[in-house]
Amino acid sequence: MILHDIISRMNREMRNNPGVRVDEDDKVVLVNEVMLRVLGDEPWRFLMRRQDITVYADYAGIVATQRANFSNGNRAVTATGGSDTTKFLEWMEGQKITGPDEVVYRIAGVNLTDGLTLYLDRPYGGLTTSNSPSWTITHDRLQLPRDCIEYYGIVDRTGRRRISTISPRQDEAGQLSRTAGGDITMVMDELADFYSPIETVLIATVNGLSDNDLPASTTFEYCQTIEEFGRESHATRVVSATTAASGNLNILIAGVVKEAWQRARIYRRDVTNRGGWYLRATTEPGVSLSATNDSSLTSDTSVVLQQDGPTEYLRVYRKPSTDTVLELRYLAKPRRMISANDAPQMPEQYHPILWRLAVAELHGRKGNGSMVKFHTNLANSRISSMRMKYLDRADRTFIMGKMSTGGSRWETRYGDPSKT
Q: In terms of pLDDT, which residue wins out, 79 or 150?
């Protein structure tokens, strides 16, 4: 079932109960809340993910071929360009850079349009230096995927390196050295970054510019995020605008804010046709802002606005001298449904759980206890079935059998353990 089908099923259940009817947006919110309650508290096997993640070797300056320019009091670091091969990449955001002044900075942002400019977390304090090879970018921490809510493990499938994951307490007790030889050690960093929304509201106004027209009589919603240190903020408050029935059908987007080292993203949603939140425009670090005519943009439906929790990291010790791809295993947060075509991230046969629990809550608001019990009992029976089939046991070393009823009290109480 897709979201449209779930809402339609709710409507059919409630058509004889006009007292519990709510508008479509409230139903979508309710279904998402129910989904998070059902899926958010259990390690469901269908929400486990494996993702390749790369540990990058140090990226350092090289005399005559890989150089950069540092300016005193300036955050921007520019590649020499020309015949030089210096290229700043996305993975470098949030990582350490040691400049010619031998001071460690963090990289706040990289202009990905050409890869020739990065921005430090604070103004460069050393002497102005041109064409310098005396700098090193160190990949010292791995950012976990944005939908990760529980880290399970990481492995080198090439078989070249054994990987250990330890706690910050073990790290502090052992005083690990990043430069020492030996196998890779990952430290699960329990400290996480919460990124607050930015204080701005976009301005979306219907204008008369003669450009590629947007659909007529259609309501669009817009919001903005910013990105720095490889982390994206929560979205701003939503602003909407509706195109006219005829004429020049364009919407001007203004009010975007960001600092020079930040990346700004604008997302758009087609409310009339119940579309999803998709990336509409990106302004890279170092690029000045200006009002944008929406009809000149194209949505990137592969980039969806996410509402994430804190950003967590793995810190890396004894990292390899060459780029190494590792396999990360983690539990994913279920993605909220916005578009009418979105589907719950759970097995198809258990989708009715969502609309039944949503309908039960609506009946509960009106004090209709018998209908609450009816729908809740049916939903709980399906949840029990889903637990039997899809709760993960891969991390359990042994599975205990049923309680033994033998004559001797010295027998194994719960049966002989067996490996999974």
A: 79
